[in-house]
């Protein structure tokens, strides 16, 4: 096991225990954006099988080859998705964490129907209401959840990227509350700098890049 993976797994274990949760209930998504196949391989050799990318084209280039060598690998899309890339995304990814608008609900539903492939989705919420960030407004969430479910999309849970430079805990708590209100079980929240806080707030999917691969 790489030493960074070992350290991260240990922190997950510690914080899960502290929160009275089972460590196995927290999925570690290794965010491999910008990392080369050579940088990714040590994690695969360690037995890690869950990865995240933020760009469709980059993911196609890297993971088409890696999937042949590691057929049980899962790759999630965690970055913004343009509607015209919906079909490529449905073909490649095992989950999409960035469903954030009605037009994308339509594009993804159409692509899933065409390819006869169901890809579970997280709805991304712009939890700090920051104009430059992706994610739906909190007020738009009920309609978006309903539209996605009506379109036959499996809504796994909610995802957020809290504002940087401030304590993330209140934002994680708010996302957890919103998920409960909608009867959704999964929370994709927490990155290298704040995944321990996210675990305490109920994260089920943490997205960790730097702590596993080093500075980008
Ligand atoms: C890059 C990225 C991460 C990982 O960030 P680190 O700080 O490197 O752990 C998590 N989520 C999303 C959406 C990202 O784009």
TrEMBL record:
<dbReference type="InterPro" id="IPR001608">
    <property type="entry name" value="Ala_racemase_N"/>
</dbReference>
<dbReference type="Pfam" id="PF01168">
    <property type="entry name" value="Ala_racemase_N"/>
</dbReference>
<dbReference type="InterPro" id="IPR029066">
    <property type="entry name" value="PLP-binding_barrel"/>
</dbReference>
<keyword id="KW-0663">Pyridoxal phosphate</keyword>
<dbReference type="InterPro" id="IPR011078">
    <property type="entry name" value="PyrdxlP_homeostasis"/>
</dbReference>
<comment type="function">
    <text>Pyridoxal 5'-phosphate (PLP)-binding protein, which is involved in PLP homeostasis.</text>
</comment>
<protein>
    <recommendedName>
        <fullName>Pyridoxal phosphate homeostasis protein</fullName>
    </recommendedName>
</protein>
<comment type="similarity">
    <text>Belongs to the pyridoxal phosphate-binding protein YggS/PROSC family.</text>
</comment>
<feature type="modified residue" description="N6-(pyridoxal phosphate)lysine">
    <location>
        <position position="33"/>
    </location>
</feature>
<dbReference type="GO" id="GO:0030170">
    <property type="term" value="F:pyridoxal phosphate binding"/>
</dbReference>
<feature type="domain" description="Alanine racemase N-terminal">
    <location>
        <begin position="12"/>
        <end position="215"/>
    </location>
</feature>
């Amino acid at each position: 096991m790489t030493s960074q993976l070992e350290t991260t797994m240990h922190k997950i274990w510690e914080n899960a225990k502290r929160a009275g949760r089972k460590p196995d209930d927290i999925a570690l998504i290794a965010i491999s954006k910008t990392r080369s196949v050579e940088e990714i391989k040590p994690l695969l050799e360690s037995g890690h099988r869950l990865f995240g990318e933020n760009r469709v084209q980059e993911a196609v280039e890297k993971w088409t080859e890696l999937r042949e060598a590691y057929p049980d690998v899962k790759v999630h899309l965690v970055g913004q998705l343009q509607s015209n890339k919906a079909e490529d995304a449905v073909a490649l990814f095992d989950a999409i964490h960035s469903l954030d608008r009605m037009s994308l609900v339509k594009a993804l539903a159409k692509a899933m129907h065409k390819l006869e492939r169901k890809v579970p989705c997280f709805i991304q919420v712009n939890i700090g209401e920051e104009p430059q960030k992706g994610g739906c407004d909190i007020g738009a969430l009920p309609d978006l959840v309903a539209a996605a479910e009506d379109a036959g999309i499996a809504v796994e849970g909610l995802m957020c990227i809290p504002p940087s430079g401030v304590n993330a805990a209140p934002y994680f708590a708010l996302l957890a509350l919103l998920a409960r209100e909608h009867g959704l079980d999964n929370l994709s929240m927490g990155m290298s700098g704040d995944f321990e806080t996210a675990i305490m707030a109920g994260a089920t999917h943490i997205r960790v890049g730097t702590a596993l691969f080093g500075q980008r």
